Amino acid sequence: MKSNIRFGVLALVAASLAVPAFAQQPGEAAYKAKCAMCHGADGTGETPIGKSMKLRSFKSPEDVKASDADLFKQIRDGVGKMQGYAGKLTDAQISDVVAYIRNLQK
């Protein structure tokens, strides 16, 4: 009986240690909710909307060398046909989306 309890406790500990591996990165939820339908889950813009709007990939040289402040401003204020997200996302959420985009660029 004691070995079953120990096994159960060890299984719970192992499971709790594995949970952070599945946790979302900051900005991921907002990106998926507001950006992915056009820019794609991977940021390449290879979606029907992205293709019709001729979006460039976040991995493009222009976006890779853009400053975080430039990306923040584009998300907040909008650019081209893209709406701005001021008032829909907080500044902290926009900063997290910029950080998430940087992760997609890797």
Give, in order, the helices and strands: HHHHHHH
Mean pLDDT: 86
Helix content: 55-70%
CATH topology: Cytochrome Bc1 Complex, Chain D, domain 2
Give the strand tally. Answer: 0
Query: Strand-residue fraction?
Result: under 5%
Number of domains: 1
CATH-derived architecture: Orthogonal Bundle
**Rg result:** 19 Å
- The low-confidence parts are 7-13
Q: What is the overall shape?
A: globular
Structural class: mainly alpha
CATH first level:
Mainly Alpha
Q: What's the N-to-C terminus distance?
A: 50 Å
Oligomer: single chain
Give the helix tally: 7
The largest β sheet comes out as: none
CATH superfamily: Cytochrome c-like domain
Question: How would you explain this protein's 3D organization?
Answer:
It is built from seven helices and no strands. The protein has helices at residues 2-18, 28-34, 36-39, 48-52, 61-65, 68-77, 91-104. It starts with a helix and ends with a helix.
